[in-house]
Automatic annotation (TrEMBL):
InterPro entries from the UniProt entry: Aldlse_KDPG_KHG, Aldolase_TIM
Family, similarity comment: Belongs to the KHG/KDPG aldolase family.
Keyword Lyase on entry: yes
Stated name of the protein: 2-keto-3-deoxy-phosphogluconate aldolase
Gene Ontology molecular function terms on file: lyase activity
PANTHER family tied to this protein: 2-DEHYDRO-3-DEOXY-6-PHOSPHOGALACTONATE ALDOLASE-RELATED, 2-KETO-3-DEOXY-6-PHOSPHOGLUCONATE ALDOLASE
Length: 208
């Protein structure tokens, strides 16, 4: 129902073109944190294999889903690989939302304007991703809530440890933060300790 948050992690780490071995190190460290949701973007060449592998290894502790889902074929492939949620930088067709509902996975299409956001909810989306959120700023969420009431919105795009709580304070229910929250050298060298430190710093910035 619109206005009620669904069972979804408050913070999702978004991986785009991150190789499997690095994704595995990140996932392992996430199991020791309060950040328990990972999106693997389908722009990653072997995204479905990565999603499948991460679900096999960490699915009991983490929610692993697919990003940049744009077609019903994308949705079915991601669900077949074990995705528990589907995100996109654009709106979903009714077919994609129906595919998600039939499979029991969470649908998170994007919207930018009030009309786009409301349309996605009217079509049955569980959460709507406000993207790119940083172009609008936290106050935009308050502007939306004034006429539409509280909505299960996820902010993505320019969200980081420094500003994420500002968006939660303004009414966001969820946030997606890219792999830029980690030091590139930690990802490249598979430095689990460094990745754990970055996750801990992010956790400190969020009021859970």
């Amino acid at each position: 129902m619109i206005g009620q948050d669904v069972a979804f992690s408050k913070v999702t780490v978004i991986l785009r073109r991150v190789p499997l071995e690095a994704a595995r190190v990140i996932a392992l460290q996430m199991t020791k944190s309060r950040i328990r949701s990972m999106e693997v973007s389908l722009v990653t060449g072997d995204a479905l294999d990565i999603i499948r592998t991460l679900n096999d290894e960490f699915g009991d502790a983490l929610s692993i889903g697919a990003g940049t889902v744009r077609t019903a074929e994308d949705a079915r492939g991601a669900i077949g690989a074990g995705s528990s949620f589907l995100l996109s930088p654009v709106g979903f067709s009714q077919e994609i939302i129906d595919v998600a509902k039939e499979a029991g996975v969470i649908s998170v299409p994007s919207g930018f304007s009030p009309t786009e956001i409301a349309t996605m909810f009217d079509m049955g989306a569980d959460i709507v991703k406000v993207f790119p959120a940083s172009r609008l700023g936290p106050a935009y969420l308050k502007d939306l809530a004034a006429p539409l009431g509280p909505l299960p919105l996820m902010v993505v795009g320019g969200i980081n440890a420094q500003n994420v709580q500002d968006y939660f304070d303004a009414g966001a229910s969820y946030a997606g933060i890219g792999s830029g929250c980690f030091k590139p050298e930690d990802i490249a060298s598979l430095n689990g300790a460094g990745i754990a430190r970055s996750l801990a710093e992010l956790e400190k910035k969020v009021r859970w």
